[in-house]
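The following record pairs a protein chain with its ligand, 4'-deoxy-4'-aminopyridoxal-5'-phosphate.
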Amino acid sequence: MVTTKEQNSMETFEKHESQVRSYSRSFPKVFHKAKGYKIWDTDGKEYIDFFAGAGALNYGHNNDKMKEKIVEYIMEDGISHSLDMGTVVRGKFLEKFSDVILKPRKLDYKVMFPGPTGTNTVESALKIARKVTGRTNIVSFTNAFHGMTLGSLSVTGNSFNRDGAGVPLNNTVAMPYDTFMEDHSSIDYFKQYLSNTGSGLDLPAAVILETVQGEGGINAASFEWLQEIEKLCRRYEMLLIIDDVQAGCGRTGTFFSFEPAGIEPDIVCLSKSIGGYGLPMAITLIKPKYDVWGPGEHNGTFRGNSMAIVAATEALSYWENNDLADSVKEKSKVIQARFEKIVRDYPELKGTTRGRGFMRGIACGEGKEDYAGKICETAFEKGLIIETAGPSSEVVKFLGALTIDHEGLNKGLDILEEAIEEVLNH
Ligand code: PMP
């Protein structure tokens, strides 16, 4: 594709687009082409993508199989917009999701299509939990990220994001996440709040959590902690909502991030990579007994994006056997080993490694928080797209496509190490 000088410049965005833009500041180039784990800017420079659309591109950019299905569907004049009317493709998706994902895991959920983004599924989950229990409080956790609309923002930890609400964010209580207290005593703290009748905590409708906190700094909860949380939910009749918007769809090595913990949430939120091709889509999984919605009680115009549903159905083929899951497990060992080596080889970073599967980070230690941003900036100059996470943006966050091959993975890790070396002036 030939582009003009104007199209290659960031000036247009600075001139016309709101100050709110963020990624175009971190990665100040104009991009126009992408394939698999690679992305190119208009100067023809190639980048390895360790960001994967913030987790919306688990199967890589422009996945061939999904592209073929979408193009075929468009060329046949398939229904593109349908609200929640019955369409052939929606039916196919529901059948395949049940056969490939739910049944083999012995899970029983009704599938709700909320609006097409992560925050939409979270909003629907909070609403249904309150409706089911008749309670108002929702317990969330420190450093949680659940979205930017008022309900999901009310269960999000980050104060910069919360301040943007402009109204009080009520009816929620934040408890310490597993990794928040160094001695891992957070579960006892939560238990005491629930059991002590003087705690001031009105019994909550639900507990919402990410099994690995993405935006909050790649904090991975232990399976024991998750099991304890589930027990508390059962004892106090609170619904357990797992926000798998970022950690789901294979990101941690299993389709749902909570599988290895052996827990069974009442509600599961999925978005980002459920649409497979980077197209907007979200679903909320609800245990049948809690599916007490009245028809249309929660709705939205864009709940039936057929192109996303077509891609989503094809994406489920990756879960018909264990190939992808096995390769994620194998490659995640490579990432972890490399991160551990980096932390050992560069003690000035005061770094620690974090995460699970393909959701991993290097947290730069106290006094070195600003290194993460510098490392990502330098990596970008060297042809790697990678971002930071955490309350002080202190974590270098790996979120590559699950389909990346060893060559791409190692090349990206090499660039990352070169960037670290440069920032530390070795
Ligand atoms: N939940 C989690 C765990 C997320 O990571 C995100 C997005 N980063 C959201 C919800 C919100 O998703 P969206 O930006 O699509 O509204």
